[in-house]
């Protein structure tokens, strides 16, 4: 299998390392920063190119798109036209431009697609999904989750002001930066309505929102809340689900899922594997993509799913701007 990795930032390097670990050696990489490109090619011993056209002349079977979100679609569309399967880092894009054309190209060529969703391979997420799907909690009345971390701490080796997260023209901002819109729908189904407050409330030198509070009504009738920020000095990621028959909780820092059922006298605790390495979920994500290509099966988060998530994010942006509830239109 030949793989092209487009974009050699931190996530691109992680994917290259994990591809090599999966015994995929036929890799070519591209980055518009020639110095970074050369450094990555040397570090990993992979081929490199200074032009996208040359990358596609290499005839890769699949392309992993790790560029800023603002150019995800142009790069992915060019790759799709060449018949390459697609792994696109989240979000699938920063707007809807070109997505219909990309979707049509993917369908016409029967391409496997995967939009970045690494936590869906985390043991705690798999346990929460298992519990929720089992129905043991009964109807889920409400749920809430949060993700927060101080933006300058994300990549302390680089100036946060130059990262895509800090720049709206590159597709940054905490709303687009978050996986939570994808994950919450994986757990609870489609979102029907959105209301959002978002703004830059800190003194971070960015031109995007750094904080968002999002209220959701799901098609099932459940009500949810997502808190997102670039400002918390301690990393936070957690989920809570409140059902008619109990409560389910998970906190990344606690490294365990906790379940309380009606009639029970204590919490059931499901621990993460001892000394769990978070890179394992990225390896499993890449293995899933590889297996989907090999078996020609749909991935767990394909391009259509990524577009569905983007609709919710963009609805949140509209809501914050216009101060109103936004309905989510679904494809039929």
Short overview:
By secondary structure, the chain is an alpha/beta fold. It is 34% helix and 24% strand.
How would you describe the overall organization of this protein?
This protein has 10 helices and 15 strands. The chain has 332 residues and is of the alpha/beta class. It folds into 2 domains: 3-111, Rossmann fold; 119-276 and 302-327, Dihydrodipicolinate Reductase, domain 2 (2-Layer Sandwich). The strands form 2 sheets. It has a 9-stranded mixed sheet with strand order 14-13-12-11-7-10-9-8-15. Strands 3-2-1-4-5-6 form a 6-stranded parallel sheet, sandwiched between helices.
Number of E-type strands: 15
Sheet with the most strands, sense and barrel status? 9 strands, mixed
Helix content: 25-40%
Broad structural category: alpha/beta
Reported CATH architecture of the largest domain: 2-Layer Sandwich
CATH class of the largest domain: Alpha Beta
Distance between the termini: 35 Å
CATH H-level superfamily title of the largest domain: Dihydrodipicolinate Reductase, domain 2
What is the number of domains? 2
């Amino acid at each position: 299998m030949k793989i092209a990795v487009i974009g050699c930032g931190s996530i691109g390097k992680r994917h290259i390392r994990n591809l090599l670990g999966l015994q995929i050696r036929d890799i070519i990489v591209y980055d518009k920063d020639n110095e970074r490109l050369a450094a990555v090619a040397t570090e990993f011993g992979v081929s490199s190119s200074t032009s996208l056209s040359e990358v596609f002349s290499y005839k890769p079977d699949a392309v992993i798109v790790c560029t800023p979100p603002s150019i995800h679609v142009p790069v992915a569309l060019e790759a799709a036209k060449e018949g390459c399967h697609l792994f696109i880092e989240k979000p699938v894009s920063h707007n809807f431009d070109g997505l219909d054309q990309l979707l049509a190209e993917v369908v016409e060529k029967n391409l496997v697609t995967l939009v970045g969703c690494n936590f869906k391979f985390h043991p705690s997420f798999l346990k929460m999904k298992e519990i929720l799907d089992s129905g043991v909690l009964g109807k889920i009345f409400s749920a809430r989750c949060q993700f927060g971390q101080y933006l300058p701490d994300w990549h302390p080796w680089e100036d946060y002001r130059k990262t895509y997260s800090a720049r709206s023209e590159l597709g940054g901002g905490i709303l687009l930066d978050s996986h939570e819109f994808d994950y919450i729908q994986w757990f609870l189904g489609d979102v029907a309505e959105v209301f959002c407050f978002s703004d830059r409330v800190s003194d971070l030198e960015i031109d995007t929102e750094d904080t968002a509070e999002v209220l959701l009504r799901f098609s099932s009738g459940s009500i949810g809340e997502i808190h997102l920020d670039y400002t918390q000095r301690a990393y936070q990621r957690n989920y809570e689900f409140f059902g008619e028959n109990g409560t389910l909780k998970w906190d990344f820092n606690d490294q365990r899922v906790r379940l309380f059922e009606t009639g029970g006298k204590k919490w059931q605790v499901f621990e993460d594997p001892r000394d769990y390495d978070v890179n394992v979920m990225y390896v499993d994500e890449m293995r899933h993509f590889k297996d989907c290509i090999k078996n020609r099966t749909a991935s767990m988060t394909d391009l259509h799913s990524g577009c569905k998530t983007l609709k919710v994010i963009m609805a949140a942006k509209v809501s914050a701007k216009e101060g109103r509830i936004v309905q989510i239109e679904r494809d039929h």
